[in-house]
Design a protein that fits this description.
The chain has 106 residues and is an alpha/beta fold. The chain is built from 4 helices and 3 strands; from the N terminus they run αβαβαβα.
Length: 106
């Protein structure tokens, strides 16, 4: 992620991070995102998630949203969980945008 952020900064573009099964706590990934960067599959439940062990949205997510990070649900079949989405939505943590996922015609 270091190199990706370095290149994105150099050429002036946002990054999109696929957060299913992150290599460490999701909060560590989220803390590094910049305004305009995108965290996709925000409601996934494989590995560390948007929720802490008490089912509360992690504070890093609220802080990132405040600084302009975009949270994307991308409701893909394998990257969405009601176990994460329902508590997050109940706490007011909604997605900001949506991607349309269509089956491949190939």
């Amino acid at each position: 992620m270091d190199r990706t952020l370095e290149i994105a900064e150099k050429i002036g573009v946002p990054i999109m991070v696929h957060c299913t099964n992150p290599p460490g706590p999701l909060g560590e990934v989220i803390r590094r995102l910049r305004p305009g960067d995108v965290l996709t599959h925000m409601y996934q439940n494989i590995g560390p998630t948007l929720l802490d062990e008490t089912k509360k949205v992690i504070p890093e997510a609220y802080a990132a949203r405040e600084r302009g990070v975009i949270f994307e649900a991308a409701d893909a079949r394998a990257h969405f969980s009601f176990e994460v989405s329902e508590p997050a939505i109940a706490q007011g943590f909604f997605r900001i945008s949506s991607l349309l996922i269509l089956p491949s015609s190939a």
